[in-house]
């Protein structure tokens, strides 16, 4: 046609489009744009590995260089998803080893990765650069050895929070002497000691190394050796931050830190000996991220440290910081955007520290840029939540965990509906919300009415009836992920809002009141959803139809039912019901 | 104030055995909401036929009774629910090790977790536990008991070793239909849990299997020998 651009021009224009959203929009314009776009899409993000098959992805996008994918539902982090549920990445790697020989990046979250998988990766992709395994499991340090040995141009090896079977620290020594490409190494989740000399040599020959996150086994006395070889580091994770208190160790460390002029992030800090904290003073003013969530030091030491970090944007800390520490943060860290406060004693019956809702209120008052919160505490009030909501209307992520389930407002003994209602009403950009405490259906009415940008919602021990669930499913227009445990939500709301589930990535419900019959109905009526029941008690059709299922995971898919379901997971599609029920009828049951 | 609230919460909370959320119907759905569903159409969707009555939550200022947590036979002072509070395992581990190092000698802890798979005869799926989260056999026993109901680890004294158990007591346990925990050690041998000091166990245990007492008889000789050498 006379007016159309040559393909090359369009391709060049499309190369400026980075987000999936934009690329997807472009693909919808017309068939020729769809075709051009699909050939030049280099990055693919798959939020649920079972929503699509490798074949479909490969068929549509033949030239992918980077894959990012997630497997298990989020509640797997808290042991609610049994072992063997799924999330295996191996079939994807097998398919891609043939289709994408030029693949450079693999980023996985909550997936099962085996040593065979790692070996296949290391041998299939000649230009492989980036491996990020976030909260993954299923592999050992032998698999890491394959990666180290075979990936000639490895840039990133990041094992954040993965569960690795640690056979030995020997894997690190498999990096060949001519490997100088490393930019990021995160081995903080590993237990075994690696050969320090191998580590030192690796760091010395990696001039581009920007991120180095060590594991606990790397002793503090040796940290300075590493830092002196890598003064260009931007992010450092220490090993254990403890040693016999000696002035030479201290001065070496101080000197090493002061050579690091570019350090922006610090983490690690296991077993902190407070006497060594001043050694890092020189870097404090440059820090934008500080992760002290393993540092079991008292509030006074924490305050001394944090008040020096005036440019802090992200702070992760244990509740040892207490309300007084958070007040100090509010006064000193005016650029703070994200705060996470973790519980030091989550299972203790009594509070062990003086951290209450007041700490969070102080930070919400003092830090004008605060937009992301994860906060564990033992008491909360509606008044505090209302204050926080009014202080920070630009809040994006708000996750509050009051440790005891169903605890009401400690001042008024009322449910916390009003407080969370204020959050959703004031914070119009809220994308993620986790709630706790005593909550009735009313809070869900507020959420359905106001939380129009909400994408992810986590609910536990809340609500009175299906009305609660109905409010959420019918009101939250942007909802993508909904995870629910121990709530009295049942069949009616789920079935009435079945179509909504096709607009979401997934729904998780465990220990709720959804019956087997309703699951079957949902599975039959919605062919584009996989409705999976997880039940330890055996096949659901050996119990009455009205019997609630233990766990339910519903997700949209174009990949059909998955073929790797273990014996305790059942797909509620057509086949299941007609096959087994008719079997029973034949057997005269 | 906080204590008072907590006590109230605890009294109102019913801990029950049995199926999770076995109180369906309790909250009387029909009393609160009336949803008319248009199920005759090919698709179930939102439609204007839904007619919702106002919920009478205003009447209910009392704390709501809980749905039964899927939990153990012997409820401890504070009921521990699976996966709550939502703290990742590696974080729980850090705290447990810290507490230990406060009281014991400072460990040159490896810092890693010690995840082992736990299978139980007759149970359809495996679980995983991080042995470093526990300090004694009793703690492990309690945790396993929560994961698998109708389960006994035998009697452990305060030090967590079965060294007081006489030959006859051991035989009783193994003859009963109770479950007995066994583990595979680094050498590939299957042993009875409780045979060795706790730290040694954590260091050598590769996987756990909870088997019926009668089946574990084959492991008895090792335990017997140990009983004899100690007495």
Automatic annotation (TrEMBL), chain A:
Its main location: nucleus. GO terms for biological process: auxin-activated signaling pathway; pollen maturation; SCF-dependent proteasomal ubiquitin-dependent protein catabolic process. GO terms for molecular function: auxin binding. It comes from the Eukaryota. GO terms for cellular component: nucleus; SCF ubiquitin ligase complex. Gene3D superfamilies: 1.20.1280.50, Ribonuclease Inhibitor. Keywords: Auxin signaling pathway, Developmental protein, Nucleus, Ubl conjugation pathway. Residues 5-46 form the F-box domain. Pathway: Protein modification; protein ubiquitination. The keyword Mitochondrion does not apply. The keyword Metal-binding does not apply. Pfam families: F-box_5, Transp_inhibit. It is found in: Nucleus. This is F-box domain-containing protein. It comes from Erythranthe guttata. The lineage of its organism: Eukaryota, Viridiplantae, Streptophyta, Embryophyta, Tracheophyta.
UniProtKB/TrEMBL annotation, chain B:
The keyword Repressor applies. GO terms for cellular component: nucleus. Keywords: Auxin signaling pathway, Nucleus, Repressor, Transcription, Transcription regulation. Pfam families: AUX_IAA (PF02309). One of its GO terms (biological process) is regulation of DNA-templated transcription. Residues 113-213 form the PB1 domain. It is found in: Nucleus. Signal peptide: none annotated. InterPro entries: AUX/IAA_dom, AUX_IAA, PB1-like. Its main location: nucleus. Homodimers and heterodimers. Aux/IAA proteins are short-lived transcriptional factors that function as repressors of early auxin response genes at low auxin concentrations. Belongs to the Aux/IAA family. This is Auxin-responsive protein. The lineage of its organism: Eukaryota, Viridiplantae, Streptophyta, Embryophyta, Tracheophyta.
């Amino acid at each position: 046609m006379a007016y159309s651009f040559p393909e090359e021009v369009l391709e060049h224009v499309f190369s400026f489009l980075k987000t999936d959203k934009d690329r997807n929009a472009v693909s919808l314009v017309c068939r020729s744009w769809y075709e051009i776009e699909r050939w030049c899409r280099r990055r693919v993000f798959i939020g649920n590995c079972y929503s699509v098959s490798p074949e479909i992805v490969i068929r549509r996008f033949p030239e992918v260089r980077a894959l990012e994918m997630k497997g298990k539902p989020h509640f797997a982090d808290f042991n609610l998803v049994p072992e063997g549920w799924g999330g295996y990445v191996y079939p994807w790697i097998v398919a891609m080893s043939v289709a994408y020989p030029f693949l450079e990046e693999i980023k996985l979250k909550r997936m099962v990765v085996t040593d065979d998988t790692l070996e296949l990766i290391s041998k299939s992709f000649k230009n492989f650069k980036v491996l990020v395994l976030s909260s993954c499991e299923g592999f050992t340090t032998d698999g890491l050895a394959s990666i180290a040995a075979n990936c000639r141009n490895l840039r990133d090896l990041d094992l954040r929070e993965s569960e690795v079977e640690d056979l030995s620290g020997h894997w690190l020594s498999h990096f060949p002497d001519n490997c100088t490409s490393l930019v990021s190494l995160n081995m903080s989740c590993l237990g075994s000691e690696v050969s320090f000399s191998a580590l030192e040599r690796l760091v010395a020959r990696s001039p581009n190394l920007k991120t180095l996150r060590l594991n606990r086994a790397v002793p503090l006395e040796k940290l300075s050796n590493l830092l002196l070889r890598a003064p260009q580091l931007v992010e450092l994770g220490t090993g254990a931050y403890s040693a016999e208190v000696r002035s030479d160790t201290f001065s070496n460390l101080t000197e090493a830190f002061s050579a690091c002029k570019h350090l922006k992030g610090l983490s690690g800090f296991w077993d902190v000996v407070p006497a060594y904290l001043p050694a890092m003073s020189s870097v404090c003013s440059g820090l934008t991220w500080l992760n002290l969530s393993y540092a079991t030091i008292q509030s006074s030491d924490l305050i001394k440290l944090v008040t020096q970090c005036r440019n802090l944007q992200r702070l992760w800390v244990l509740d040892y910081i207490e309300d007084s520490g958070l007040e100090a943060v509010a006064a000193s860290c005016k650029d703070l955007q994200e705060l996470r406060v973790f519980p030091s004693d989550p299972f203790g019956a009594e509070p062990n520290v003086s951290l209450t809702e007041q700490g969070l209120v102080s930070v919400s008052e003092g830090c004008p840029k605060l937009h992301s919160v994860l906060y564990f505490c033992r008491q909360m009030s509606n008044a505090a939540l209302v204050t926080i909501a009014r202080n920070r209307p630009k809040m994006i992520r708000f996750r509050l965990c009051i440790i005891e389930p169903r605890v009401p407002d400690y001042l008024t003994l009322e449910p916390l509906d009003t407080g969370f209602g204020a959050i959703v009403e004031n914070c119009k950009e809220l994308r993620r919300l986790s709630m706790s405490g005593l909550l009735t259906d009313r809070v869900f009415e507020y959420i359905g009415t106001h939380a129009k940008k909400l994408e992810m919602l986590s609910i536990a021990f809340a609500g009175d009836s299906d009305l609660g669930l109905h409010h959420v499913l019918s009101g939250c227009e942007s909802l993508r992920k909904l995870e629910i445990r121990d709530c009295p939500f049942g069949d009616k709301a789920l079935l009435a809002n079945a179509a909504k589930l096709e607009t979401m990535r997934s729904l998780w419900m465990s220990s709720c009141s959804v019956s087997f019959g309703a699951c079957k109905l949902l599975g039959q009526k919605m062919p584009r959803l996989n409705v999976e029941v997880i039940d330890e008690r055996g096949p659901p059709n050996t119990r009455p139809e009205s019997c609630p299922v233990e766990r339910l995971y519903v997700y949209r898919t174009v990949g059909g039912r998955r073929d790797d379901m273990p014996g305790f997971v059942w797909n509620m599609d057509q086949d299941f019901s007609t096959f087994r029920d008719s079997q029973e009828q034949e057997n005269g049951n | 104030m906080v204590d008072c609230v907590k006590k109230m919460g605890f009294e109102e909370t019913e801990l029950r055995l049995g199926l999770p959320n076995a109180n369906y119907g309790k909250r009387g759905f029909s009393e609160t909401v009336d949803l008319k569903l248009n199920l005759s159409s090919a698709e179930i969707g939102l439609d204007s036929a839904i007619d919702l009555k106002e919920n009478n939550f205003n009447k209910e200022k009392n704390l709501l009774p809980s749905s039964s947590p899927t939990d153990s036979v012997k409820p401890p002072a504070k009921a521990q629910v699976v996966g709550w509070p939502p703290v990742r395992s590696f974080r729980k581990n850090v705290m447990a090790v810290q507490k230990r190092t406060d009281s014991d000698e400072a460990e040159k802890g490896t810092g890693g977790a010690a995840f082992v798979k736990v299978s139980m005869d007759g149970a359809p799926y495996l679980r995983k536990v991080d042995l470093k989260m526990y300090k004694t056999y009793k703690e492990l026993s309690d945790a396993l008991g929560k994961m698998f109901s109708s389960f006994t680890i035998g009697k452990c004294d305060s030090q967590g070793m079965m060294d007081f158990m006489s030959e006859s007591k051991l035989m009783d346990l193994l003859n009963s239909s109770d479950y007995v925990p066994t583990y595979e050690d680094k050498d590939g041998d299957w042993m009875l849990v409780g045979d060795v000091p706790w730290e040694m166990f954590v260091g050598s245990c590769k996987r756990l299997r909870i088997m019926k007492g009668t089946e574990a008889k084959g492991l008895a000789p090792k335990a017997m020998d140990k009983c004899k050498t100690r007495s």
